[in-house]
Amino acid sequence: MVKLAFSRKLRLLTQSHFAFVFQQPQWIGTPNITILSRFNMLEHPRIGLTVSKKNVKLAHERNRIKRLTRESFRLHQHDLSAMDFIVIAKKNTASLDNHVLTKELEKLWRRYYRQFQD
Fold it and tell me: In this model, does residue 33 exceed pLDDT 60?
């Protein structure tokens, strides 16, 4: 049975974790979301989120984007390679409704899965 938890070990927590990905990222993106990634030495993927106040003005919109992104990652974590991901929300991300944002994230996770299959 596949465990779909989102534990602390699946998150990028420190500045050094983020810096590791920013040093030599591979990236894919859409007009609304960019995902940077880099292979890690762990046996599982991890995710970090950047939703800046400059791009998404309202706190409840930033929280909604982060919540939906974490949920999407939680559901797709077993399909992904052992990589560190940083999801960056762009300016027009706040205008997307939940369904469209979820579909866009699913599309990006599928692209990563196809591109970096084990």
Answer: yes
